[in-house]
């Protein structure tokens, strides 16, 4: 085995180690990101894996008790992520805390600081400023959290912000970055690529390197944001066309879900389909040993389009609100237990490009 093969096996070992829960990356995330940033390009699999997790769950590291241990380049690589799932004001406040922790001469009470102390912090965080979406913050966040610390910003940016939050459509000198992309809080991007592959009739495991070019996914509902009730589902998801339902199980990284190629409408009937499927996998990896794809076996019972708690797949294969999954009309069971508890769930409209 040569050195390249050894590095490749090491990367896969670490990814598999973290496949069932996030404990490993919680304990070792700082070291992992520092190592990747110090050896750019050496660990491409780990870099993609770590960025995927961090974009979805940045609070695993940012704001943690060990957060200050991140190297400058490691933190910069995280803040540069376009799909970082964190409010800009939270990124800013944690950057300030990180900058203070990196300078032992600075105390946490900024009201007592001298001009020189502000200059020290300004220099420490200077490389991060251009990557923070200041213009995507609310007026309240700007007024109470950014404006008082304006001396930490380049003069041009400080002046542009002062004008922008009074006259939003004014002409600015500063380049305004777009909002960060809103990806799922449950899945990684690669999971959506796999679902797209399945929609097109693909087998359980997707070939290496296959990308999603056929479909895009528009979030209709997130339980933790919009509510977990049936009426919330009807309001957000009925009559929207083809959808994917994703359910994150409580106290687990396991995801179960299903693809409805028709629509939800509350017709109180079973809908016929040959292309629906249900599935399970884990949220932080795509390990072929833990993926289950279960296609419809009896098409007359593909979709349970109930008017009450009977929304789901098959006669009992996956019911969203009954929180049950007992094999009946699909090819394989997707969960060992017939019942489950929901940590969060999302419903996406499937749009053909």
UniProtKB/TrEMBL annotation:
It holds the Pfam family TLD. SMART domains: TLDc (SM00584). Residues 193-351 form the TLDc domain. InterPro entries: TLDc_dom. This is TLDc domain-containing protein. It comes from Rhizophagus clarus.
């Amino acid at each position: 085995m040569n050195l390249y093969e050894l590095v490749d096996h090491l990367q896969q070992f670490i990814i598999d180690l973290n496949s069932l829960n996030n404990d490993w990356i919680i304990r070792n995330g700082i070291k992992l990101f520092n190592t990747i940033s110090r050896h750019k390009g050496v660990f491409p699999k780990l870099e993609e894996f770590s960025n995927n997790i961090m974009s979805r769950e940045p609070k695993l590291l940012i704001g943690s008790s060990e957060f200050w241990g991140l190297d400058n380049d490691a933190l910069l690589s995280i803040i540069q992520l376009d799909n970082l799932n964190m409010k800009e004001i939270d990124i800013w406040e944690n950057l300030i805390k990180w900058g203070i922790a990196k300078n032992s001469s600075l105390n946490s009470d900024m009201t007592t600081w001298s001009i020189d102390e502000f200059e020290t912090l300004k220099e420490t965080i200077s490389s991060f400023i251009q990557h923070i979406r200041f213009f995507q913050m609310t007026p309240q966040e700007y007024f109470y959290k950014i404006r008082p610390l304006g001396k930490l910003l380049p003069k041009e940016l400080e002046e542009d912000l002062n004008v922008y939050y009074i006259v939003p459509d004014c002409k600015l000198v500063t380049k305004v970055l777009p909002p960060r992309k809103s990806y799922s809080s449950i899945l990684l991007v690669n999971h959506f690529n796999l679902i797209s592959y399945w929609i097109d009739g693909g087998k359980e495991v997707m070939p290496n390197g296959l990308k999603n070019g056929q479909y895009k996914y528009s979030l209709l509902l997130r339980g933790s944001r919009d509510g977990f009730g049936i009426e919330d589902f009807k309001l957000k998801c009925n009559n929207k066309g083809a959808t994917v339902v994703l359910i994150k199980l409580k106290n687990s990284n396991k995801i179960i879900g299903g693809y409805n190629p028709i629509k939800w409408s509350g017709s109180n009937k079973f809908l016929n389909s040959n292309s629906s499927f249900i599935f399970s996998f884990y949220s932080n990896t795509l390990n072929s040993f833990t993926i289950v794809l279960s296609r419809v076996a009896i098409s007359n019972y593909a979709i349970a389009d109930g008017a009450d708690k009977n929304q789901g797949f098959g006669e009992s294969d996956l019911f969203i609100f009954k929180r049950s999954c007992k094999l009946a009309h699909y090819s394989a069971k997707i969960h060992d237990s017939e019942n489950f508890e929901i940590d969060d769930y999302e419903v996406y409209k499937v749009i053909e490009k």
